[in-house]
Design goal:
single chain, alpha+beta, four-stranded antiparallel β-sheet, 3 helices
Amino acid sequence: YRGSRAEIAVVQDAGTGFVKELFVRPADASDRDFDARLRAGVERLQRRWPFVGVDPAGAAGCRIVVPQPDRPGHEEHFSMVAERFFGAVRDGGLPEWERENTLSKYYITTGAVELAAQADRK
């Protein structure tokens, strides 16, 4: 993902031992304050999740460290997602940002299906 100040990537390959890892790097390589801002952000996260950290990762930027024992497994993650969904239903619907993301996702995917269908007809 690319933002105006950073790029983030979830990597799961031989270099990470096939474990999902999160990397963050500045959008502008000349951004001298990036590391300090990232570390300050991680420090704020540590108030709730004290096990989260940040390590330099060379050209990849920085790796956000979440120790394996502190990562939720599939079942726990599913439970968290389900809780959020049921809470949204109980409270009267999805938050506005989720509505916007869902509309964008379906616009893109339905547009891609239409383009593929047009290509097949040619």
